[in-house]
Design brief:
The protein is α/β, with parallel strands linked by helices. Strand 4, helix 7 and strand 5 form a beta-alpha-beta unit. Helix 3 runs antiparallel to helix 5 and helix 4 runs parallel beside helix 9. The N and C termini lie far apart (45 Å). InterPro entries: DUF1194 (IPR010607), vWFA_dom_sf (IPR036465).
């Protein structure tokens, strides 16, 4: 946020009013979408369709128009053990139905593929970098992470999450629980304890593939509107997480030690 503000400010240290208004949005939102090989091509395709459908839905458009400025800035990328090269869809302002359809069409045109491993920490770090580099000033800065397993690659997830939250960003989660995961107490619990953070942060579980599109739409509307989810799984402030946030790394290591 500070980097983007420094770029936007003039030599006098004061941001021109017209430029400030042109770059101000209600939310800067990064969609970070898991495409690891624990999901098959059918599931990846349904996931993609869910995002495309949600972005074109009237509820999403109405939520955007209902904000203070009536516009948001949105970007997208896919990740697994790393950020997928070429998957990044750069920042675009959405203020109208046509804007939303144009962004959804860009997403729909992307090839579908899967990659190895799961690095939620890398996804969060990429989201942070994109928000810092964004030319837009969001009243809220949100990283939206969807995934179907715990972190098992790259840096541990909680320190990266904590740095993002300390900078004022919010991380929400969509826990894809279509089949048993490596999180013993449930992936939604893992996301609640180890991944999400910031004011009003929430995790939505998806247990049936046919529920995916509705869950994505609900999540986007809540993020844009700044609503809090009365979640059944919420971390306790100030408490140590009951979940082992290194469970994915340990399971991956154990698999190779056998």
């Amino acid at each position: 946020m500070l980097t983007s503000l420094a770029v936007l400010m003039g030599l006098s240290g004061v941001m021109p009013t017209a430029q400030a208004a042109a770059n101000e949005v209600d939310v800067t939102l990064v969609l970070a979408v898991d495409t690891s090989r624990s999901m098959d091509f059918e599931e990846i395709g349904i996931q993609r369709d869910g995002y495309v459908e949600a972005l074109k839905h009237k509820e999403f458009i109405d939520a955007v128009k209902g904000g203070l400025t009536g516009r948001i800035a949105i970007s997208y990328f896919e990740w697994a053990g790393y950020v997928v090269q070429g998957s990044v869809i750069d920042w675009q302002v959405i203020a109208t139905e046509q804007d939303a359809i144009a962004f959804a069409d860009k997403l729909d045109a992307r090839p579908i593929g899967t990659q190895r491993r799961t690095s939620i920490s890398t996804a969060i770090a990429q989201g942070v970098s994109m928000i810092i580099a964004s030319p837009f000033r969001g009243r809220r800065e949100v990283i939206d992470v969807s995934g179907d397993g715990p972190n098992n690659s790259g840096n541990p997830v909680t320190p990266v999450r904590d740095k993002a939250v300390a900078s004022g960003m919010v991380i929400n989660g969509l826990a894809l629980m279509l089949r048993p995961s490596d999180a013993p107490d449930g992936l939604d619990k893992y996301y609640a304890d180890c991944v999400i953070g910031g004011p009003g942060a929430f995790v939505l579980p998806v247990r049936k593939i046919e529920d995916f599109a509705v869950a994505v739409r609900r999540k986007l509307v809540m993020e844009i509107s700044g609503l809090s989810l009365p979640a059944t799984v919420q971390p306790i402030a100030g408490a140590e997480p009951a979940t082992d946030c290194l469970i994915g790394e340990k399971q991956w290591r154990d698999m190779f030690d056998r």
